[in-house]
Each structure stands twice: as structure tokens, then as C-alpha cells.
Amino acid sequence: MRVGIGYDVHRLVENRKLILGGVEIHHEKGLLGHSDADVLVHSIMDALLGALGKGDIGRHFPDSDDAYKGISSLELLEKVMDLVEREYYIVNIDNVIMAERPKIAPYIGEMKKTLSRILKLEEERINIKGTTTEKLGFVGREEGIASESIVLLDNK
User: Fold this and answer.
1) pLDDT tens series, the chain, 156 aa
2) C-alpha to C-alpha distances, 122 to 89, 118, 148, nearest whole angstrom
3) How far is CA 35 from the centre of its chain?
4) Which residues are annotated as a binding site?
5) What SS3 class is residue 20?
6) Which residue ranges make up the annotated binding site for a divalent metal cation?
7) Residues 6+ positions from 68 with CB-CB distance below 8 Å
8) How many domains does the chain have?
9) 86 and 53 in contact (C-beta within 8 Å)?
10) Is the dihedral of CA 118, 95, 69, 25 positive or negative?
């Protein structure tokens, strides 16, 4: 068995869509990044790559490569899954999204459904939680959103 942890953060800005877990969320600001800046998917990818011992998403999908400009993070997650499926399967994923606003809970079901399809994993093996930072730090000031994931892999 192998365990990996992933963390990602992006700044909130105007004139960008807010995408979390592959789901567009109604909010006045979105996350700034080279891709769609989906912090949830990015933290899952880093957790998977960490469990595999294969670096991080910056190594695999550098922001200096225009091929990834504006790309859906779900497309990148599919590429990471190609690496996972060579030798392993996902046992479970646990995630927390840190944001003052918007509230995450109303979107969790749709996020799990979307991720389940890409990860080829039953929804009940994907856990997503939302939390605030009690108005502390950059998340508390609504300057950005962060996400942390942990994943357990097992041999096929």
C-alpha cells in the first residue's frame, strides 16, 4: 500500500470561473492559474503522484508549457490516472477545501460524481469536506482557496 498527500492553493480574482472538483460554482470570483486552477483536483493529483513517488503536478504539467494553458484539470487528472492504473488502484481519497466563501457543502455531491467517473472509484470512497479558517489568514480574508488531499493506493 502507498499513501500520498497533496496541497494546492490559488488566488481568488475577478473575471475567472470558480471550478472545484470539476464543477463550476457560482461565485463572484474565480481562481487564478495557468489551467482552470481547480485546487481540489490539483491536490488530488499531487497526492496520487506523491503516493507513486513521481514528483508533483508542476513537474508533469509545468505552467511554462502553453499546452496546459486554460486546460481542464480533469484532463490532467486523467493523465495522472494513467500512471496510477499501471500498478495500483485507489482505495480511498479524503479531502478538505478551505474557503470562507462560497459554501462548499451544496456542491459536494456533484463533485464526488464527477471525480468518481475520472478516478474510476465509487463515490463512497471519495470524501470531500469544506471548512473555513475562521477569518484568519489569506483564506479568511477571501484572497484565495486551498485544498489538501490524502490518498491510499493498493497494488492491483
Assistant:
1) 999 999 999 999 999 999 999 999 999 999 999 999 999 999 999 999 999 999 999 999 999 999 999 999 999 999 999 999 999 999 999 999 999 999 999 999 999 999 999 999 999 999 999 999 999 999 999 999 999 999 999 999
2) 12, 11, 20
3) 12
4) 8-10, 34-35, 42, 56-58, 61-65, 131-134, 138, 141
5) strand
6) 8, 10, 42
7) 34, 35, 61, 62, 76
8) 1
9) no
10) positive
Q: Which domain covers residue 44, as residue numbers?
A: 2-155
Q: Retrieve residue 29's grid coordinates.
A: 470570483
Query: Residue 148 corresponds to which amino acid?
Result: E
3-state percent helix, strand, coil for the chain, nearest multiple of 5: 35, 30, 35
Nearest to 73 by CA among 24, 3, 22: 22
Q: Domain with 39 in it: what CATH number?
A: 3.30.1330.50
pTM of model > 0.90: yes
